[in-house]
Known about the structure:
Blueprint: E1 17-19, E2 22-26, H1 29-40, H2 45-59, E3 69-76, E4 79-85, H3 95-99, H4 119-130, H5 135-138, H6 140-148, E5 150-151, H7 154-167, H8 177-183, E6 195-196, H9 199-211, H10 214-217, H11 220-231, H12 238-242, E7 247-249, E8 252-256, E9 259-263, H13 270-280, H14 291-311, H15 321-325, H16 328-335, E10 356-362, E11 367-373, E12 383-384, E13 389-390, E14 421-425, E15 428-436, H17 441-453, H18 459-464, E16 468-472, E17 475-478, H19 484-492, E18 496-499, E19 508-514, E20 521-525, E21 532-535
Parallel strand pairs: 17-18
Antiparallel strand pairs: 1-20, 2-10, 2-21, 3-4, 3-11, 4-7, 5-6, 8-9, 9-14, 10-11, 12-13, 14-15, 15-19, 16-17, 19-20
Helix pairs in contact: 1-2, 2-4, 2-6, 6-9, 13-14, 13-16, 13-17, 14-19
Amino acid sequence: xxxxxxxxxxxxxxxxxxxxxxxxxxxxxxxxxxxxxxxxxxxxxxxxxxxxxxxxxxxxxxxxxxxxxxxxxxxxxxxxxxxxxxxxxxxxxxxxxxxxxxxxxxxxxxxxxxxxxxxxxxxxxxxxxxxxxxxxxxxxxxxxxxxxxxxxxxxxxxxxxxxxxxxxxxxxxxxxxxxxxxxxxxxxxxxxxxxxxxxxxxxxxxxxxxxxxxxxxxxxxxxxxxxxxxxxxxxxxxxxxxxxxxxxxxxxxxxxxxxxxxxxxxxxxxxxxxxxxxxxxxxxxxxxxxxxxxxxxxxxxxxxxxxxxxxxxxxxxxxxxxxxxxxxxxxxxxxxxxxxxxxxxxxxxxxxxxxxxxxxxxxxxxxxxxxxxxxxxxxxxxxxxxxxxxxxxxxxxxxxxxxxxxxxxxxxxxxxxxxxxxxxxxxxxxxxxxxxxxxxxxxxxxxxxxxxxxxxxxxxxxxxxxxxxxxxxxxxxxxxxxxxxxxxxxxxxxxxxxxxxxxxxxxxxxxxxxxxxxxxxxxxxxxxxxxxxxxx
Length: 536
């Protein structure tokens, strides 16, 4: 892959990192270092990714936790493997049951949006199938940080304070008391540079390490989850945990200008990025810094998102939608809708019939794209007492409209925002990439991939380039350093442009590319976060 190492029309905040024996990129420096330490101890990229993921539940609890979901794309032994470790809705939940509690839509907090967590099972399964070191060794860094404490990094501290303010009205509710006991024991959020620890979380991780996650799904931890859920009218039970298994799946891809761009199949929203790239193949993107290029990217993304939001759900509830949505015929039809003016997007018609991301690589050619999340910040706000287990609120994306594709149902997987990405060319790995941030994720994937393939930006430049985010209708927000001339030109085309000051709105990404001739790894990390690349 050819990169331009030149002066860019915007500020490149950091320089790319090069290494050959191993590399781990994530948004929290201590977690990246934990993964690198595993590589130095003889582990492979899969071991490093698991160690980093487990450490992030402690080091960045504002975005993920032991009760998270996870997805992984793993390149090893000449093949790309996909692991879907998203959870399912409890068997006792239903649309009627939620509506009887007075909700017209799935709530954000409480037990209603809690689904079976998949992250601990993902760690164990990745290690079992492809890891080299003992599973218990991989969780040692996380256990040590939880037991002995660590100083908060700046962005994590900022997000922690934001979450504390969001929860500040809930301490009187006994359901949320364990959250305050765990994450605000001094009646405030910890600040940047201050130490934080959780002996309870350390004990929980130790049990998961010793039992290869069996304690979480069938043992003492499962019983604690069941007990607290029962006490507070939750739906999840030990039987839901006992029945859960992560699933190995075949990744999906499109060929974009000679490169194969890979995503997880539904229920993940990676399909959206692929639909948009397929549409863009019908256009020439000659100049990055032009209103015409930005307009085409935004319009393609809007069309793709409209399709994704309508059709993506549990893959067992889909038939031939994916193959048709990724067909050349469908891409041509959708591309014809893109004109010079901003459109109001709508889904096409089919034929009848706050997240953490980790990129890891080793010197042997193994590469991992791994992502896990509580969905929104600390998730549901439900923490199981004396365990440090914060439960995700992934069920919030379910619809309470029975006719919607993503309607809530027992045992069903919901539309999932977290998506790992991977790039290959001619059957060889280029590497993992990802951009965290809810519905920003496929938009980030689209921008990172076009920056890389169309405009030859190296990983750090591809991440640092000013971003835009489509919100709805014709509304698009842009970063403050997004070129003003292009923003004005987009407004003249009918886009409703707003400048957003919060860098957290535009996602947080990581990239590792591999030169298959020399084995040299090139990494980029997110300058909008506390990101770091640990390299060897």
